[in-house]
Each structure stands twice: as structure tokens, then as C-alpha cells.
Amino acid sequence: MAELSTLARPYARAAFEFAQEQGDLAGWEAMLNQAAAVAQEDVVVKLFSSPSLPSDQIAKQFIELLDSELSDKGQNFVSTLAANKRLGLLPEIAALFAVMKANIERAVDVNVKSAFELTDDITAKLESALATNLDRQVRVTSEVDQSLIGGVVIRAGDTIIDGSVRGRLAKLAEAMNS
């Protein structure tokens, strides 16, 4: 995973800087997300790894698949990726681009897993507390994971707060075994 990030980072940064100069971060994010989704399809993965097709032909076919989703500059970006045999990095490039955009916007997506469905009131309080602690605008999504037994696991970027019963039991078991 780290290797993919290392390879994708220069491309994501270049796309981000260009989109920022053009004032079209949202457009480029949507375009990269669409391209990343298409790039993960089995047929497309096989196309990318085809040794019989030259890179410009692969780029042309991929651009045709995306139809009107790519701007002219987006098509140039895809052609550059193809020439460098990096089209398979599109999902990672899109993810890195989204992180860069969120950092500029001072926003963060937070995923909250809980053993039970969270009420709107609790979600709002959690969102407010996280916004204060992270000093960012927070967008909370929640999901139910009954294996947690109780409590919550909060994931905000690289930060993970495990307040679940399952997590506490795991820490206790680890302490007892050492």
C-alpha cells in the first residue's frame, strides 16, 4: 500500500496543483473518482496489463470508456499515466487527491462504527466535539458493527479512536499475555 502511495503521490500532486490553479478542484475530484472507478473493473485491469497494446492505444480505449467524463486536460493526464504505465494507480491517485482537497478545505471525513444505530442528537454532539478537537469541518458517516459489543470506533484519516468494548477487551488480553 505504501509503495502505491509513493508511486501515485507525484501524479496526484500534479493533478491537484493544476486543478487548484484552474479553480476546479471539485471537477477534477469528480473526474478522478470516475476514472478510478472504471479503472478497477476487471476488463479494464486486463486492458492495462495487455502486453500487445501500446500505451497510446490503451489510453485511447480508456478515454473512450470514460466518454464525456474527462475534460481535454483530463484526457492528457490519462495519456501521461498510460505512457508511464501508471493507469492502475488511478484509485490511489483519486484517494490522495481527495485528501489534499480536504486539507485545503480544512475538512475531514469521519467514519463512526458503533454497536448500535446512533441517534441524530448523538451524531450532532459527536460531530461538534470532533470539529473542535480536530480543528476542521467534520463530515460524519456512521455504520453499525455489532461485533464491537458496545462503544464506538472513530476513524478520521489516519487517526483512529477505539472506544469499543471489543477493543478494550483486546488490550486487556494483550496486557495479560505480556
Automatic annotation (TrEMBL):
Coiled-coil blocks: none
Alphabetically ordered keywords of this record: ATP synthesis, Cell membrane, CF(1), Hydrogen ion transport, Ion transport, Membrane, Transport
Gene3D superfamilies noted in UniProt: N-terminal domain of the delta subunit of the F1F0-ATP synthase
Chain ranges passing through the membrane: none
Subcellular compartments: Cell membrane; Membrane
Pfam families in the record: OSCP
Topology of this chain in the membrane: Peripheral membrane protein
InterPro entries per UniProt: ATP_synth_OSCP/delta_N_sf, ATPase_OSCP/d_CS, ATPase_OSCP/dsu
Assigned GO CC terms: plasma membrane; proton-transporting ATP synthase complex
One MF term in the entry's GO annotations: proton-transporting ATP synthase activity, rotational mechanism
UniProt-listed PANTHER family: ATP SYNTHASE DELTA CHAIN
UniProt function note: This protein is part of the stalk that links CF(0) to CF(1). It either transmits conformational changes from CF(0) to CF(1) or is implicated in proton conduction. F(1)F(0) ATP synthase produces ATP from ADP in the presence of a proton or sodium gradient. F-type ATPases consist of two structural domains, F(1) containing the extramembraneous catalytic core and F(0) containing the membrane proton channel, linked together by a central stalk and a peripheral stalk. During catalysis, ATP synthesis in the catalytic domain of F(1) is coupled via a rotary mechanism of the central stalk subunits to proton translocation.
Identification of the protein by name: ATP synthase subunit delta
Lineage: Bacteria, Pseudomonadati, Pseudomonadota, Gammaproteobacteria, Cellvibrionales
Gene: atpH
